[in-house]
Amino acid sequence: MKQDKNEIRWDKLLKIRTTGRDDSKADQYRYPYEPTPYSVLERLANSGLIRKNNTLIDYGCGKGRVDYFMAYQTKCKSIGIEYDERIYEKAMTNKETAVSSNKVIIELANAEKFEVLESVDKIYFFNPFSVEILQKVIAQILDSYYENIRTIQLFFYYPSDEYISYLMTVDELMYYDEIDCRDLFDGNDSRERIMIFEIM
Questions:
Q1: Is the pTM of this model over 0.90?
Q2: Beta strands of 75-169 (E only): which ranges?
Q3: Domain named Methyltransferase: which ranges (predicted)?
């Protein structure tokens, strides 16, 4: 119940509408839209790992919650990538009213084809797609890294075993840390965490 109130409170404060799940275009490769709980985003914002001079990409941004929240809380620039046109339209509707909209760009694009800008140094995933697509996305990120060598941090909220197994095989990725979120929810679910990897 406390979670629900927090969800509504933040949406109101940010002047956006991002609650609810959407399975309408989900399949074996692209997973349903489900927003990251605000309590998890608060923890990420409070970690100090994302600041105003950073540029964040949110893959599978849905209605843009991560983008508008992180831009508001940390003053970072944020780029949301969404492939579902209907959900993208909702993110754009939010952009018209969001308090932090001047720092947010929402792109209608397939993640695996999106060219990562050289300014991007923080990347967020909440299980938006299958490992097959993730592999192509990581290849795009590495291309961008080699064009402009910099430290890039990747944040994986609620990571699946498949994701973790794959990430551990990528030579350029180093496990950096994790943010434990188990105490925010009932049930002590070991997946309730943000795993952080770094390319440097």
A1: yes
A2: 77-82, 104-108, 122-125, 152-157
A3: 51-141
